[in-house]
Structure formats: structure tokens, C-alpha cells
Amino acid sequence: MQKHTTFNAITLITPTASMTAEVFGGRAKCLQRLIRLDMPVPTTVALSFDTVRGIAQGRMPDIDAVLEPFGPTPLVSVRPSSLDPDWGGPGAVLNIGMNDARCAALADEIGLASAISLYLRFIQSFAINVARLDPEPFELPDDADEASLAAMLAAYEAETNEPFPQDPARQLGEVLRFMARAWDGTTARILREAKGAPADAGLGLVVQEMALGVGAPESGAGVIQFASEVTGAPEVKGRYLSQSQGRDALAQEGAIYLTRDPRGPSLEELCPEIYADLIRIGALARERLREEMQVEFTIESGVLHVLDAVRLPRSSRAAVRIAVALGEQGVIPREEAVLRIAPNTLNDLLHRQVAPDAAREVMASGIAASPGAASGQLVFSASEAQAAAARGEQSILVRRETTPEDIRGMHAASGVVTARGGITSHAAVIGRGLGLPCVVGVSNLTIDTRKRTIRAGSRVLGAGEIVTVDGHTGDVLIGQPGTIEPALDDAFRTLLSWADDLRDIGVRANADTPDDAQTARDFSAEGIGLCRTEHMFFDGERLTVMREMIFAQRDDDRAAALDRLLPMQRADFTRLFEIMEGLPVCIRLFDPPLHEFLPSDRAGLRDLAEALDQPLSDVMERAERMSEYNPMLGMRGVRLGITVPEIYDMQARAIFEAAIGLSEKTGGEFVPDIMLPLVSAQREVEIVRARIDSVAAAVQTETGREVTYRLGVMVETPRAALRAGDIAENTAFLSFGTNDMTQMTYGLSRDDAGRFMSEYVKQGVYREDPFHTLDLEGVGELLTIAAERGRTARNDLVLAICGEHGADQATIAFCRSHGFDYVSCSPFRVPGARLSAARLAVAGRMGLTEPPAKPGKILIYQ
Amino acid sequence: MQKHTTFNAITLITPTASMTAEVFGGRAKCLQRLIRLDMPVPTTVALSFDTVRGIAQGRMPDIDAVLEPFGPTPLVSVRPSSLDPDWGGPGAVLNIGMNDARCAALADEIGLASAISLYLRFIQSFAINVARLDPEPFELPDDADEASLAAMLAAYEAETNEPFPQDPARQLGEVLRFMARAWDGTTARILREAKGAPADAGLGLVVQEMALGVGAPESGAGVIQFASEVTGAPEVKGRYLSQSQGRDALAQEGAIYLTRDPRGPSLEELCPEIYADLIRIGALARERLREEMQVEFTIESGVLHVLDAVRLPRSSRAAVRIAVALGEQGVIPREEAVLRIAPNTLNDLLHRQVAPDAAREVMASGIAASPGAASGQLVFSASEAQAAAARGEQSILVRRETTPEDIRGMHAASGVVTARGGITSHAAVIGRGLGLPCVVGVSNLTIDTRKRTIRAGSRVLGAGEIVTVDGHTGDVLIGQPGTIEPALDDAFRTLLSWADDLRDIGVRANADTPDDAQTARDFSAEGIGLCRTEHMFFDGERLTVMREMIFAQRDDDRAAALDRLLPMQRADFTRLFEIMEGLPVCIRLFDPPLHEFLPSDRAGLRDLAEALDQPLSDVMERAERMSEYNPMLGMRGVRLGITVPEIYDMQARAIFEAAIGLSEKTGGEFVPDIMLPLVSAQREVEIVRARIDSVAAAVQTETGREVTYRLGVMVETPRAALRAGDIAENTAFLSFGTNDMTQMTYGLSRDDAGRFMSEYVKQGVYREDPFHTLDLEGVGELLTIAAERGRTARNDLVLAICGEHGADQATIAFCRSHGFDYVSCSPFRVPGARLSAARLAVAGRMGLTEPPAKPGKILIYQ
Predict the structure, then answer these.
(1) Strand B475-478 to strand A446-448: parallel, antiparallel, or no bridges (unpaired)?
(2) Fewer beta carbons under 10 A from the terminal one: N or C of chain B?
(3) What ipTM was estimated for this complex?
(4) With b meaning 16 or more CB within 10 Å and e meaning fewer, what string describes A109-130?
(5) Alpha-carbon gap: A409 to the closest alpha carbon of chain B (Å)
(6) Among A629, A756, A775, whose Cβ lies nearest the Cβ of B643?
(7) B43 secondary structure, DSSP code
(8) Cβ-count burial of B321 within 10 angstroms (0-12 exposed, 13-18 middle, 19+ buried)?
(9) From the CA of A756, how many Å to the nearest CA of chain B?
(10) Which of A625, A684, A722 minimises the CB distance to B781?
């Protein structure tokens, strides 16, 4: 049977001539490359998408021509070859060509039982899949003998009223027709479209000479790979099973190791030359296919055949390590290594995850708002979380929703669950900022804060019981499943340093606290693009002073309270500036409505009245008066800066004094960025700018040091976008707050949208959650208008984005194409943003409209 | 002294030649016209703005030339002549030229006492105004004799160290310098700029030969007019005082009637020929000056002189009647009659007003949100207001703010006061809709609903005490001042019928109830542009069913509740359609968040739990879950239509069945307009359209009658404006909800803006309250974008505006210039909108950029 080992070039069955994955599918293309590398691939014939489409429509190609390369007594397999292996396809059919005569002939070569076994497997496969018969009569017998063969042939004839087909050409024709039609089945179509296949995705088929894997001397089949699919580290792994076909070695007992192993026998010991050949083949494939591959091989009577090779499936961590290794070794350019890693892959590396194989007892599910996994005891208030932290215990904070008062509790907790809110609710934004696993909008979770229980359906858990937040899936799990740790290893750092060399847009971090700032630096952010100052006023003592300021009846009382806040605020900025070591820091002045700082319940108001020495009824009345119907659209942002200007005065002074302090310490000159929130009219900017300028002049007079700053506007209202031309005349930069801009453009509160957003996306009302993916058609148009008008008014205007969308690849693409200077995002999203920016730059230089969505494609199919 | 009666043409003192009001002021221009009509006007010299400006800067013209027309012994007056008489100016100075010699000469003609009297008056006026001396020594003595004259001349010399100037040229020069400088004084400038004068407004001066009004045979002065300044009805009115000058007749005792009058002597009896001449002059002036004039005249020794004529000051009601009379008599074209009435003039006619002369005891002040005046007893809840109405008593409903639950109470009350909210708060919108006087945002008013008192400062009023709401000024008055009634008379209707003939854009009304619809028809609205359906569900029984629907646990429970609402809703539409008699009716489907229909307090929730037979805790929890952070941006509008589609199904069915009912009754075919609120994506429209289409098909099948409708979108979100091109493909019309659009464009809640809006407008941060005056720069640009994209997609697209701004002239101007089809506004604002639309059309045809702001200008100055 010498011709079986002949390494024929692949034979193409197609109306067109070119051998591409787009015409024949990925498997065929890969086999062709293996053949060209002189690997021992059995004779192979490839049928193109068009050919297979024709078969499904009843136009069968000349089967004799297909079989011609396999000689007069063909024995072949048929495997699917779609453009993307992930799209699935009909299972392989092996041993086509087996019939009575061939069985008898093979018995001489490999023994009767082995020959009958192959025949039985083929009859079974044909009967069930092709003839669509009831599987029960075709179960494989324990013993492959002539009686069981006769019984199965009889069963076939009884069911179909005709004998089992003996003509290999007819067998193959039926198999091809079955496979072609299976591809068009509804279920197959839905499944592959869910994986991103287009509606007209084609199926190619690969007909290949069987390498039997049964018989003597050594025969069998196995799978080999050369790196760990978990870590990406170099390692020869796989299994080999004597007297087997296909991938049986991975599934059946009796398989042995490939490399010498203390735990048992190995192929290296059994067939040292074949093992050495496999190692050589692996190295060759890796270098020439420019990818870490997994190879399927068969040994037939001591001769090695390579049947197939696929891209090694891998974890996110392995993906990074493999891409970096290929890049470092010069197998691929660094640009390609960067292109091969999808940005969201990094999420898995940055955060602890529930182990993929851990048992999951899901209590309830919501929106996965901040990635990572954390376990801890259930707590129901910020103070309980702080108490647990003080005891050194992990806790999961469960709230109906979180408010700024909960921030210290969130710092103390290991994870957060809220019953309400969406992807940009308070809990979600803060959670992402802190890198804290967070699940929000768990609408079927009932929280009883009095009894201190949570309930979902009939399940009830009480305070102190252990739960796990899975911020990847949005699940709340009972108990503590196993987890895998984050992997910020050398490969991760190398990949991002390459990305930084390649990208052409800045990446800053949104950071409010020294911890945030440190994280931002750890992730190599190029500065702080958004420092929200309001969180600084919720800390114990400050909150009290803040409330005194809010309730001050006279200007001098207010001034006194602000005088006490000034040194605290100055210290905040001093620390931030020191951590950032001269990198730019953009400080957004006070934004939220003042009533957020008031106690929300009667007891808190009573305490406040006592602290202020004012009658409770007065305090309640004033608190009541301050409440708002739509706080998002109320008395906040620059409106406070206009109507209670003393707050911004204090903040400006704190910024200037801290900046002078840093300049004195380092000898360099540090220029802070000051940003105004919620602007809707140019005059707002003028008025606040005049006040800040006079604070700057005063500080300059007092200190004798020059005070400089850059003033900018956070463009969050549609009107600010439309009037960006006027506004730019008074500002050095515009930074787009896309969250609020999305809220106002859609007329949709992010805190309230959670209740119907999933329904909306499911029904396709919105293509995507616009708080998650920037709405280019609506919000994007306002940004475009603003960018154009701003730059027209002032061509050195700095443009940036600092909303939650800033880390998304699509958003960064938008920003690049509109000439933005930088994006700013949560510290934990900075690595993804750096990578995305690099991928976009590389894709742009390659003339692609966007980076490849599937990293694997680059190699296998081109 | 014959030359005093010579009717010289006016002499001009100016570097330029043309005699226009823009160069010499209104008084000079009017005098020139009187002279050209051969009226007996004394010799007059006019000084132009530039001349007077020169005097103020020290460049005195040749005084001898100014005096030349008055002969060798001039005796003249100087009066101000600004472009607009309303802008004020220095007071007239009379008798310039009086000196010792002239006094002696005049004594021969008119008697010594009269001559001394004139001299004394001049010395007084000169001393106080021109020489700026202490007034006390210059009080006029009881007896004008030589001793008192000597005393006053001595006083002058004592104060100034020089004798009283005897040279008429020097006297006049001093007077001119004084008047020119007074015009530049700060106070004068502020006062006139508050009335709309530009910063560079000029002052002209008129120097006129004195007609003495003293002496024998008959001498004196008076003022005459030919129509009532209150009603506008033709009537000769005025006063005449023998031996007087100027307007003394109006102020001093002893004046007599002009026309024969049972109450006393009259000029008609005293000097019948002069009276007849005045009547002739009045008729001539009215016809040739094309305006109802008030004429100042003097009789000098039996000879009539006309010194001046001004446009008759008049009430709003008189303004309409006079304009219509002039139009009907052909004195002016109808176009001009329409131009002469400012649209806001009509407000005074539509509503009762506090009488201008009534005593006002102001308790507190807020925002004048809905015009009119109403008095009644203080009530603190909707039910109290209804109880008062049931007793036939007037009430004023006072609330912190109103909610949809208060609507029935608002219907029952005579006026509404709220402590919170702005010009477009719920109370304000509903108040205007109902024509109910309303004052909102009375922030210094403390309402104690428990004690049932209101407090402002130290003033406290309790339930049942009488207060008055002044919706014109925004005052809350204690007690019940006198009022004047609305005046929807024939002149009003005639004027608006002319307006309808002239205008080129439609005017519809926003009407939710049969009462509203009837008002709309009474005011000749061309249809209903916005029928808000949600108000229909607050009525007692319906509210209960509504709540059952909201709390339905199962689909069939919800369906059952909606089945009960269907006939009620159908009856609503049937009545509306009948009242509108086939005119278009645009029904906006259900808009507000469902939680607005839930009780707001615990007691209400307890009642609801009982009614629903559900545990209170469940009801409370569900109500709590439905609450929203920012209801304005929440689960409302078309979002309900998508997620709880049964509500729109029910409404669509009710509309179709009512429309078929009307068509059957009238034989014509009635096509309703159905409008979707809060759209932000085209797909929302597609989805709801498909559901409504299937309801239409079902009703068609059931009734065998064809069902047609027009679907439209209420464009309220910036995104809907930006995507208007897509949206238009599924719609017959777009109607702009400018209130919500303003909220979203600015990021500003109308309910919360009241707290700082006045501060913002005061500081000039916003030029105007954008909820009051459409923001053309921001919101207007979004409307422009939407209109262009919508019409590009579908050139027969109907465009309309249905926000609160719809009645404003500036908004209508915007709509006309963008090709809108109609505006829709509160019924009570329909007349103003009809008039504004006509004025714009007329101004457009005249080539003006906008209609004249001051109706008077048209005649007097051109």
C-alpha cells in the first residue's frame, strides 16, 4: 500500500483555480501549507464552497474524478472546512470505501477483527448520519466478529429494504450530499451565526486518504502540541493511543503520554524516531505557519502521517504569552503580536476569575458591571463592610443601590452587588474604578435590610453567609468556588510596551484617589484625564464640614467651613500630583448636587440638626427644599460654580497651592488642568474663568510664584457640543463626558435604564446598550460637531474623551479619526485602551478599516 | 402780536437736511406733519440729535439763528423730542424770553398779574432746573405781584451772585445746555434703556413760540382726545382751563369739560367755534396721521393754537378697538391694524386682571406662570378645592408642587400657587391649559400642610382666608382687590379674523379634555396639535383600574384591567372628535412613568393594597421598585409602548373605534393623528407602528370599516432630532416637543431649574429662560437639523411644534422660516399665536426682518 504514503500535492475540486481559505475553507488551506512544507500528509482532495453548495442543490460533481487520486480501491475520510473552524460543521466521516471486499482484503493486512471493526464503524456512521436510521440497531458490538458484521448489515437492509451500498463512489456521494445539506440545516445556521458567521457562509469539504491507525507493527493515532494552553509556556503535551483513529486518544482509556513521563509510558520511549519527527514537524509548523499549532497524527504500520493541524486553543493568558514569544523570536513582527490579542482578553488577566471548572451554584444574575471574582461574607451596609475589613475578613456589600455615602464601604468590601442600576450606575462606575468585582441590576434579588437577608426565588441567605460575585458573568454564586489569579506577567508588560511604541493617541486614567492614581501609574497611564473631586468630601470629618457649608445661613459661616476644607483638599491634590510625578492631571471641579451630601434618613437628619445646633424641623425643611425631581438635570456642575462660587474658589486655591508645592519640591513647573462640568453656555465658562483667574492672581500675590493653569470644559450636554465653537474660545481643552452626553442625547437616565435596557437590546430596539458602546450615530454626531467647531475656533484645542466609553476600541477608533489627543478611562481599563489604540494604529498602517476581530485569522487564513 | 398766530413751516437746526424721526425725534416729526396739515401750530424750530449731542459736548449752535424765526422779542418753550416718547427726557421749559422788559410790555396786553405770573414761573423753572438752586426760595407765591417778583429776583441774585439773566439768547442757551446734559445723566440713561432705548439714543429739542393761554378775551389751555383710552370707543374727552398753560388743565382745579355735559360747564358752550374747530382738527389728524391722537391746545385771546399731538395712550382693549376701527374705516389697511397690536396685548383681554388702581397687599411673589387674576379661600389639597367648588365657593389651591393627582383639584380651584417649580412645571403647564391663574416657584412661601397655614416672613394665613393670585405679576395678594373683566368683544374677533386671513402657518391647540377642546374651538384653533392622554387616567374610577393594570401579576389580569379602561378611553376620544367636528386631532399615546399613578404616601399604599387584595409589604416593595432617580429620563413614553405594549394597543383601539364612530355619524372620513412620545431610535417607531397596524387590521376586520391613521413622532430627544431622516421614513409627521428638547439639550430639568434660573438670567448666563423663549442657538439648531433631514427623507413630511414655546412670536418666526406646517399651544395662547403668525407674514411681505416691537412706531415715525 505504498501509494498511501505518497505525499501528493492537494487536489482541488472547484470551478475556480485559486487555493484560498475564502474558497476552500481553513482546513483545506492549512493542509495545503503542511503539504508544501513536505509534511507526511496523506493524499487530499478539497471541495470548494461552491462545489458543496452545488451538491446541496443536487449538482453532484463527478465522484470518479474525486476518487481518482485515491486509486482503484479508495479508503477515505471527509472532514468539514469552513472559513472559521469555530463555525462548526458536520462531524467527520471516516473509512468511506469499506465494503465486503475491502474488509476481506484488509483482514490480510491488519487482521480480521481490526478490519471488521473499521467496517462496523463505517456502517454505523453511514446508517445513522447519512441514511438517518434509528441508532439503536447500530450500536457497536463488544466483539468485532463476522457475526456482528452480518447482523449489522442485515439490520441495515431490514431498515432500508436494500443492501448496504458496496460501491465506494456511491458511499462517498451519499456522504457528501449529507454533509452539504447538514450545513444548511436551521440549527447549524443559528449556531454558526451566533459565532459571527455571515448568512452566506460556505462549507468546503476535505476528502483524505485514510491513514488507518490499526494493524502492526505500531499503529495508532494521537494529538500533539508544543505549548501549554493554560500558561502559553513551551511544553510538549498530548496523547497517543495505539490501534485508534482520529482523536480517540483524547477521549478513550489506554492513551499514553508523548514525552517521557514518570507517570507512565510515552510515545518518546515507544517510537523515539517518530517522536523526534513530530518535534521537528512542530517546530517547522510553528515557524512557517507563524503560530502555535496542535497537530493530529496517525502512525500506520510504523509510518507517521500528519492528518491535520489547528491553531492551539488557548486561555487569554496563554494567548498573550504565545504572541509575545512569537514576536520576541522574530517569527512574527511585533505589530502582528499586538494585532493577535483582542483587547478584552486583557480583562481576564487583570482580574481574578472563577475557575472555569469550578462548581457554580448560581443564586441570582444581573449585569456584569465590573470584572473579577470575589468571595466574602454578606454585609448590608458600608459600616459592616468596614467592620469586616477591620477584622481582616472579606465581605460582599449588597445594596439596593449605592450612593456616594457608600464609597468607604465599597473600598472596604471585596465585591459589590446591587439590585438596581445599569452598566453605568454609581456602583458600576466606582467598582470599575476600584477594580472591584461588581454585579448590578440583579432585579430578581429581594434585599431585606431589616432582617438582613437576600432572597431570590425560594433561596434566602443571611448576613455573614459566604457568597461570590462573578463580575465576568454577572452571577451571584452561593459559597466560594475556586478561582484563578490575575496574570500581570512579563509577557503582559512586554505586549503593552510594544503597544505603547505603536499607538498614536494618548491614554490617561480616570483617578479620584491616591490608590486610583497609583493603579493608573502601574498601568502606565500618561496622566490623569479625569479626577472627580466630589468623592473627596465624603470622608467622615469632611462630610460634617461639608454639611455645615451647605447649611450655612450666612456667607461668613460658609467661608469658615470652606476654610476648613481647603487644607484637606490641598493635601488631596498634593498627593495626587506627587504620585503622578509631573504627568498631567485634569481636575474636574465639584459636580454633584449638594443634596447628595445630606443624610437620606430621619435619624441622620436628627444627628445633623444636633451637630449644626439648628432645630430639626428647619434642617428637614431645608433638606426637603434641596431635593430634586431629576437630580441629573438639576443644580449641579458649573451651575453650582455660578450660584455658590465659593466652592470653586476654594478648589482652585487648593489646586494652585498644591501645584506650587510640587513645583517647589521638584524644581520643574507643574501646570494643572482644571475642568468645568455640565456646561451648557459659553457665558458659564467666562464667569467661572474670571473667578478662577482672580484666585490665581491672589495666590500669585501671596506666594510670589507664578500661577498657571489650563482651563477646559467637560462637554456633557448636547448644547455644549453644539456651542463648542464659542466655548473653545475660552478653553484650552474639551473633554467629552460621554455618559452624561448619552443620557441627554437619548433622554435616558443611566440609573433607570437598567430596568428595560436588556429588553431593548434583545428586541433590537437599540443595537447595543449605548452606555456600553458609544452611539456613533447620535452621540457620535454631537461629538463630531463639537470637535469640528472647537478646532475651527482654536486649532490648538486639545480634544479628549473621559467617559466610560473611553476604553472601547470603537470609541478609540472614533477619537483617532477625529484627531483627538487622548482618551481617559478607569485605571483597570488602561491596558486594554493602550492595546486597542495600538491595534488601530497598526490596522490603519496596513490599510485595514479595523483590526481583525478574531486574532487567529491573521495567520491561518492568509 | 399778530405774528404769533402765523403758521410758519417748521425750521430745522441740523447738519443734515432730512426731516425724520430718526434725526429730530418723534415730537418734531409729528409737529411737522401737523403744520403740513395747516393746523394752527406756533412757529417751531427743531434741533436734531446731533445738534443736541454737540451742545452737551460744548458746541453751542448760533442761538441768534435759532431765535431768528421768533422775531426781535422772542417768547418760547423748549420740549424734548426723542425717537420714542416712552424714553422720557427732560421736562418742558416754558416762557423763555421773559425778562423785566417783556414783563412790562405783556402787562399792557394781558394784565400785570398775568404777566408777573408768567415771569415768576420762568424764574422758578430756570433757577431750579438750569441754575440748580435750592428750590425753597423759589416757591410760587399766592399772589403774583411786583413785590413777590422783586423777592424772587433778589433770591436768584443772592444765590448766584449775579442778576437773573435778561438776554433771551442767553436764557435759551442755558436751557438747551441743561436739557442736553440731563439726557446724558446716568439715571435718565438707565430709565430709558430699561424701556428698550439703545445706548446711543439721541435727544432732539423743539423750540416753539409760546401761545400764552393767559389774557383776554378768552385765553387758556387744554387737552382733547376723540376716543376712550379704556375701551377705545369714540368719545370726545378732555379738559380745558382758562388762564392756564400746557397741561395744567389735567392737574389743576377749575378745569371744565370740553363737550356739553350735565355735570358742569364746557368749552363747547364757552367757545362753540373753537370747539368745532377742535373737532375738525381731531378728525383731520386721525385720518391723516392714521392714528387716534391726543391734542394739546392753547387759546390765546380767542385764537386757537395746536401746540402738540401725541398718540393717545390706551389700554390693551382700547388698542384693539382703535386699530380695528381704523382698519374698518379704511384709515389704515388691515395688515397695519394687525401689525399695531402686540401679541401679548391679547393676554390682558383674555383674562381677568387685578384693577390697575386697586390696593395691593403683596404677601409673597413668585413666577407669573399663567395669566389672570382670581380670588378665593386658601385650600391645601385637591379634595378641599373640590369641596369648595361643590359649595359654589371660589378657592385658591396652594401646594408645594402639583402632581397629576392634583388635576381635578386644579379644575375645581380658581387659582393655583406652588412653592416650587418654574415656568414649565406641571402646575404652570396645566394652569395655562385651563386658563387658570397660576403663580409658581414662590420660594419664600412656607407651606405647613399639617397646620394648614402659609407663611411668608412674619405673615401667616390659614385655610379659608381669602387670597388673590395675580398671574400677570406673579404676586400672591392678601384679600380681594378689585378686578377688571376679560374683553373678548367684536373688535377682538374681527382683529383675529383678519389675522387668520393674513397668516401662512397653521395654529392648533394643545387640548387634553373636552373643556380644553371647546376653548380651542372658541379661539378658532384649526385642530388639536397635542392631546396628552395620560390626564385621562387620573379620574377617580379610572385611577383605580389603572393601578390594577400596573400591579397586574399576570398578562390576563393586565388585559382585563385594560379592557375596562377601553370604553372610557373610547368615550374620551369620541367627545373630543365630536367637539372638533372633523378638524385634525393629534393624540399622543401614553407618556408618563407608571409610578406617577401610584399613591405617594403610606396611607394611599395601604388603601391600594386593600383594593388589590395584596399584602401591603408586596405593594410597597413593588411601588418602591418602580420609583426612579430621574423620572424625566426613565421608563416612559415609547419605552412603555415597547415594554408594556398592551397600553398602546388599547389606546390605538379606542382611537380607531372612536374615529369610526365619528365617520359613521357624519358620513365623512375622519383620520386621526397618532403621535409617539420620547422616541430616540427609529426602531422604536417601527416596532410600535407594527403593533398599531395590527390593531388597525383587527378593528377593520371586526367592523368592516376601513381604518386609516397618520403616525407621527414627538421629537423631544436630541437623538430623535439627529436621526430625523430615518425616523421620517416611518412617519407622516414630526412634532417638536420643545420643553423636553430644551431639558435634554441643556441637561436641565424644568422642575428643578426654577431654583437658579432667575439668578442665571440676572447674571446674563442665559440671555433668557430657555423654557420661556426658545433657545435658537442650541435647541433651534437641533430643530433645524431635524427639519432638514426629515424633509430630505420625505418631502411631504408635516412639521409642527407643540411645546410651550409654540405661541411665541420668535418661535413662530423660526417655524415659518423652516417651512413648518403648524404650531400648537395652550388654548388660551391660540389667539396670540394667530396674531403673531399674521404679523410675521405681513412683516415678511413688507420686507421687514420682524414685526415692529412697538405698535405705535408704525404711524408716528414713518
Answers:
(1) unpaired
(2) C
(3) 0.81
(4) ebebebbbbbbbbbbbbbbebb
(5) 22
(6) A756
(7) P
(8) buried
(9) 7
(10) A722
At A27, is the secondary structure helix, strand, or coil?
helix
Residues, chain A: 862
Q: With contacts defined as CB-CB under 8 Å, which chain A residues touch B630?
A: 630-633, 749, 751-752
Q: Do B719 and A775 touch (CB under 8 A)?
A: yes
Q: In angstroms, how far apart are the furthest CA atoms of chain B?
A: 108
Place of cell 434642617: A619
Q: Note whether A745 contacts B633, CB cutoff 8 Å.
A: no
Per the CB < 8 Å rule, is A775 touching B633? no
Local structure of residue A128 (DSSP, 8 states):
I
The 10s digit of each residue's pLDDT in A300-349 is: 989 999 999 999 988 888 999 999 999 999 999 999 999 999 998 887 78
The catalytic residue positions of B are 426, 802
Using CA coordinates, name the residue in chain B closest to A633: B748
Write out pLDDT tens, residues B300-352. 989 999 999 999 988 888 999 999 999 999 999 999 999 999 998 887 788 88
The pLDDT, as a whole number, for residue A16 is 57
The whole-angstrom distance between A126's CA and the closest CA on chain B is 47
CA distance A676 to A682: 11
Number of Cβ pairs < 8 A linking chain A and chain B: 166
Cβ pair A177, A58 in contact under 8 A: no
Angstroms from A197 CA to nearest CA on chain B = 24
From CA A597, how far away is CA A405, in angstroms rounded? 8
Output the furthest CA–CA distance in chain A (Å, rounded): 108
What is the DSSP-derived secondary structure letter of residue A261? B
Helix segments in B532-554, DSSP class H:
540-551
Q: Which pLDDT belongs to residue B859? A: 38
CB spacing of B747 vs A630 below 8 angstroms: no
Distance CA B638, CA B590 (A): 8
- If we measure between CA atoms, which residue out of B739, B717, B683, B687 comes closest to residue B785? B717
Identity of the amino acid at A408: R
A713-764 per-position pLDDT tens digit: 999 999 999 999 999 999 999 999 999 999 999 999 988 887 788 889 888 8
What's the pTM value of the predicted model, to 2 decimals? Answer: 0.82
Q: What is the C-alpha separation between B296 and A101, in angstroms, rounded?
A: 135
Bond prior to A80 in cis (omega within 30° of 0): no
Q: Residue written as cell 394784565?
A: B111
Give ∠ CA A46-A50-A53 in degrees, rounded to 5. Answer: 105
Find the CB nearest B745 among A632, A642, A718.
A718
The rounded Cα A785 to chain-centroid distance in angstroms is 31
Residues B756, A683: C-beta atoms closer than 8 Å:
no
Residue among B643, B748, B763 minimizing CB distance to A680: B748
Confidence class for position B2, pLDDT limits 50, 70, 90: very low
Hey, what domains does chain A have and what are their CATH numbers?
Answer: 2-209 (3.30.1490.20), 220-314 (3.30.470.20), 354-484 (3.50.30.10), 503-593+628-825 (3.20.20.60)
Whether the per-residue pLDDT at A153 is higher than 50: the answer is yes
- Taking an 8 Å cut-off on Cβ atoms, the answer to whether A639 and B756 are in contact is yes
Q: What is the DSSP string of A307-365?
A: EEEEEPP--HHHHHHHHHHHHHTTSS-HHHHHHHS-TTHHHHHHS-EE-TTS---EEEE
Confidence of residue A288 (pLDDT cuts 50, 70, 90): very high
- E strands within A83-219? 93-96, 203-209
Give the tens place of pLDDT for each residue, B320-332: 999 999 999 999 9
Helices (H) and strands (E) in chain B, counts: 35, 30
Q: What proportion of chain B, given as a percentage, has pLDDT over 70?
A: 97
